[in-house]
Structure formats: C-alpha cells, structure tokens
Amino acid sequence: MPVHELRYRSWEGEVLPVPVRLLSVPRYTLMAVFNKYIAAVLLGIGVLQLIGYGGYLVIVTMPELQAMLELPAEPVGLKDEQVFRYFYSVQYYICLLMVLLAAPRMISPELAHRSIAIIFSRAIPRSGYILGKVAALGGLLSLLTWVQTCILFSLMYVLYPPDHTFHQQFWTESFPLLWKSLLLGITVTLLLTFVGLAGSAITKNARHAVVYLLIAFLGPGLATNMISNVFEVNVPAISLRHLTQDLGYLLFNPGEMLRDTGFVWITIAALAWVALTFGIIFLQLRPHRVYRE
Amino acid sequence: MFLEADNVTVTFGRRRVLDSLSMRLQGRSTGLLGPNGAGKSTFIKALMGFVPLRQGFIRVLGHDVRREAMRIRSLVGYMPEHESYIEGLSAVRLLRYLGELAGLSPRDAMERAHESLHYVGIGELRYRPVETYSLGNQQRVKLAQAIVHGPKILVLDEPTNALDPEGRNEMLRLVRDIGEYSGSHVIMCSHILRDVEYCCESVTVLNNGKAILSGVIEDLKKEDLRTYEVRVEGDRNRFLQELDRHGCYITENLQGHLRVTLPEGHGTRYLFEIAGKADVQLRHFHFKKDSLEDIFVNALQESEQGPLHAGS
C-alpha cells in the first residue's frame, strides 16, 4: 500500500512494568549471539561432558548393561567429589571460549551502531539494561556450569541404587556436594560474565573486545608468575583461572591446599573483579558517553 | 504548552552549551533551528534527561525532567541523527524489540512494528537486516522506531540527513503528516530552513545556547509596514549615520541589502528625507515580508552583533 494512503495511528494500550520490559534485553541479546552458528556448536560441545558423565553413570549403575557391553564387573568407581572438580576444570575452558565468542557481540556492536542511544531513549534504567545483558551471558554460561551440575547431581540421585553411599550419607556427605558445586559454578559464571561484558563495553569494535578479553584472562596470571619468578616472592595469583581453580580445591579437597590461599582471599579477589568490571560497564554506558556525537 | 524550559544551563567542562535558555513550546509541530553548536541536540538530550542540568528546569507535559526522566522518556519517541541499528536484526525484529522495551506486550509490539514500517514505506524490506538497507531506508526505520510505541511527543534530530531529494520529500511528508494528524507533538531539529518551514507551524531559533527567537512561522513572516529593504547608490556610511541619528533600526540581509525599520509614526516619506540628507539615491526599495531564512539570519545577526551601525 503506498505511503500516502496510510495515516499515522497513535497507540493507547496497556504499558507493561519495567521488570517485564527488561526481559526482552536477554532475549534479543541471545538472538543476536545465536545468529552465528558457532555459538550453538560451542553450546553443543559444552554439554558433551554432561552426556559423557550421564552415560557413564548409567553404565555404572546398570549391571545388565555392563554385561551386555562386556565391561569388567566393577568399573572404575566414580568418586563423587572428583566428578564435580574435573567437570569444572574442563567446563571453565569451554566457558572461556563461549565468553570470547559471545560477549564481544553483546555490547560493542550496540555502541558501534549506536542502537544503544535508541534503547536508552526508552524508559528503562541503565542498571536494568546491564542486568539484562548479565542475564543473557550469565544464563548462557549457567547452561555450561551449575545447571549441568544440578542435572548431574539429579542423575546420581536417580540412578544410584538406594544402598549406595550417595543415599546412605545423603545429608552429611552427598548433599554438601550440591551447594559446593553450585557455589563454584555461580562464581565462575559471574566472574566470566562481568569480565566478558566489561571487555565488550570498553570498545566499539568486537575484535578489539576479544583482544582485551584475552589480556584480562591471561594477563594477571602471567604478571603474577613473572613477579614470583623474578623476585622470588610468593605473590597470590589473582587471575580468574587461579581464583576458580583455588576455589575448586578449597571446596572439593579441603585438606589439599596448593597455595597460601583461603576463602577470605578468594572472596576479596572475586568481589574486586566483579566490582571493577561492573564499574567499567556502568561508566562506559553512561548517557553522556552514549549520546556524545 | 507541552514543553517549558526556564533558565536552563548545561555545561560540558567549562563550556556552557546551554546558557540560561528559556522557551515554551506549544502547537503541534515546532522546528528547532540553529547553526552547528547552537545547542539543539544538547537541548534534546536535556529534555530526555540524558545530560544533567546545572540550573533551571524543563517540564515536558507537566513532568519535571530532574525527577521524572523515565516518565518523560515513556512519552517521547526519539529519532537520532546518526545510524542506529543492531547488527543482524531485521527491521521488524528491531522495532519489536524497541516496542517491548517501551512497554508494549510482545504481541502489540509485533503488530505496531509491522504497522509503523508499513507507514514509513518499508513494507517489503522489513525482514532484511537493517544494515543492508540504503541510507534512506535506514532513516525511515529510525522514524518507524520512534513512533512504534505511539509517543505523545516525537523528537526528530535532523531527519532528512543523508537523504536524496526524493527520500527527503517523502520523509518531510511523513513528518508533516504525523504533526497534522496524529495528535502527537513534533519537535524537529534541523539546520535546513526549508524542511522546518514545510513541516512545522512554529519555530525556535537557538544560538550559543540561548533561544533567540520563538513564534509561529506565519506570524513571524507577517509583512511589516515599517520595515523596508533598500539598496543605495552613494555614500553608504553617511546614509547609515543618518539612519542611526534618526532612530532607525538597521540590519543587513544575505544579498547585502539594508533592512531599515523606521521609528513609530513614520512612513515612506521619512526614509526619502533621510536619503536626501545623506545625499544617496535609493535604488531598490520595497516593504519586507520575511522568509524563514530572513527571520533566521536576522535573529542570528541581532543576537551576535546587534543592529548595524555606520562603519560596520
């Protein structure tokens, strides 16, 4: 229909509250991320471990299946604590790849093509927008971390026979595994999410964001290693990898300490990372900067 | 009156971008005119609460921008000057997203997205990513996103930028249509006078962060029987001195003609008498009906230099 035959029609309908509106931020952010098939592929790779462990649990707990597959009568026992720790040590790197792939496409292009100016011209607060982005990347990483551990835990609960120690000592030994793995998973997710979004918010160029993220992931570890080696002093490692690794050891191997580190130090360092990166995102998206010509 | 600004000052560092600016906007459509750096875009950002006011207040439809910026944003549709799209999103998805952010339900947002895109003439292209559009079509999408949630006030920042003549006419027709028939107020920020003259019923001229002229365009263009446009042959400076001595107000237009406003109670004969005293011949002489261009240039000249005097 030609334009001259149309008349502008105003709209007088129900307006949804702000929290409901903000749900569209993660939805459309993820839509933009999954425009690239590689994100879906990486997510697929991210659930391989879960499938592997799941399959293994099924085999371990079903003697008929073991017999059919001609496996030894008692396969290598699955030490529950080790399951979660090894699981996270692999998932961490998959999460890193996901952050490198997805985070730069979350804020940088909106700064580059200035769509952020029309987004903020709507009645949504800046903090709400940032939370929407955190929900998008955090949700994606959660699918690779603590959600999978919950599924794994549930599988153990369902598949292990009732006389297994998992059930016998459920509240004293098995259940704490769940909250420990949740704590580790949520920490990894939050740290990587905030760092990823900060990397994306400091530049309009998504490729530059990848470089900044690599620096953020590798730089602190390399720096502390160099300082420790050159000056022969024991500098606590503040890299994300060290933090999450140390937290994993603390949670799942309470007696085994690799570094002079503890919950207090890890908490301080993790909070510092989150505060620093949230501050960067918040400042980078301040209206004065967004609307600068 | 849908917008009231009083004594508004905005500073960036030490620079006063808006300097005790006061204005009242009423009517359906208003053009904000001004040279580059006059403060037009900053005023738009200030009225949406994106830049802090150092002093003064702005009220939009009765809401104070300091306390109710979010409420104001929900009433305003903003079309920025620069490109604005999300890479990979089609026009219909982009508008749906922005509609949802404005508070429409997903279903309403989808319906309004299609309707708005159809209205601006992006009917068939709407499923293609916006970055693949021509500049003209990107401008149309920007207009569509500004109206998708049915705002009470539509703020357009240089809407005809980068458009070819055909696209420009189409855009102006849409803006005028919205101003006339939608029930929404339109604020159009531009430095192209003809665009403002075509789309708007009133105009506010900004310069150096101040509003130097404001009014209904047709009223401003009224024929002034005390103002003459003249060209003289002879000693121009002496003529200027005589005019000054006789209490005339003098400015100069773009063609270099003098624009002389006689004191109250005097007519054509008075001007001839002054010319006789200055010993100059009047070669070009007629009553002046200002075009918007004249109004704009006069306003700028008066704000920067004051009236013309001998030797200037």
- Mean pLDDT of chain A comes to 84
Shape of chain B: elongated
Largest sheet of chain B: 6 strands, mixed
The CATH topology of the largest domain in chain B is what? Rossmann fold
Which geometry of chain A do the CA atoms define?
Answer: globular
What is the radius of gyration of chain B computed over CA atoms, rounded to a whole number of angstroms?
Answer: 23 Å
Largest interface: A-B, 42 and 58 residues
Output the strand order for the largest sheet of chain B. 6-7-8-3-9-10
Low-confidence stretches of chain A: none
| Number of helical elements of chain B | 11
Q: What are the secondary-structure elements of chain A, in order, as H or E?
A: HHHHHHHHHHHHHHHH
* Strand content range of chain A: under 5%
* Through-space gap between termini of chain B: 40 Å
User: Can you tell me the residue ranges of chain B where pLDDT is under 50 for at least 5 consecutive residues?
Assistant: none
Oligomer: heterodimer
Q: State the secondary-structure class of chain B.
A: alpha/beta
CATH architecture of the largest domain in chain B: 3-Layer(aba) Sandwich
Structural class of the helices, strands and pairings of chain A? Answer: mainly alpha
- The helix count of chain A comes to 16
Q: Please, what is the CATH homologous superfamily of the largest domain in chain B?
A: P-loop containing nucleotide triphosphate hydrolases
